[in-house]
# Entry
Amino acid sequence: MLYFNIMNIIDTHVHSAFSFDGEHSPREMIEKAIEMGLYALTFTDHIDVSNYYGSHYRQSELMPLGAAEIPPLKDEYKDRINIGFGAELGQFVHEPALSRKLIADFGFDFVIGATHEVRGHEDFYYLDYHEQNIPELLRLYFNETLEMVQTADIDVIGHLTYFLRYITGRDGIVVDLNEYTENIRNIFKIAAGRGIGLEINTGGLRKQGYGKADPGLEYVRMFKEAGGEIITIGSDAHRIQDIAANFKEGAEIAKAAGFKRTAYYEKRKPVFVELE
Ligand SMILES: [Zn+2]
Ligand SMILES: [Zn+2]
# Structure
């Protein structure tokens, strides 16, 4: 085990320009991370598989480019920072065979399992919640997340409460998640039993009108109570300015939930780092 006392500087969720919505090259992001004193930085560019848009949308050209460019940088920078080559894989359960093939083909260090959309619907980002049946969407969301932790080859559950960024943060609709508590507890128990971790995604903390981590403390605590042992903290930066943003708050949530360490991944195995 690795003991390291400045936990704020392990960012396990960043997007480079090899994501359709990323701004900076991997090298620019690494240079910035070194300047900031980061200990580890994991690239998790998007692969979203989907029934809605047709298989393997968004990343068909970009991910192979990232796979050619990022792994050599791990070696080039190894004396200065621990670079990881990962992916944020959306909707594994929509295309399980394709998802498994992509994971195998690219040889990732780390795979975040994300649910950006549910079957038959667009990404939560694109929906107008004044016109949606929100309880139905959330029922589908938690069912698909359960299916993901039961079947998918992922390392952590990414931004569990992603949809709140848009339903509440953008469209101003408050939703009561209490009716999903049992579903969420079940998701956590199964994830914990399969060695799947939970991400504390700090991206929402810097979103105007939202200002929350995904998920917040009550769910991180519930994950711990369900036997969860692995927590990662990720900024979801899509540009250098957001690398490790709001990490102090992310670490506080992990500690308040009872976690003593966080992790990043190498070759799909967690490397634990003590939370100070
Ligand atoms: Zn995402
Ligand atoms: Zn992301």
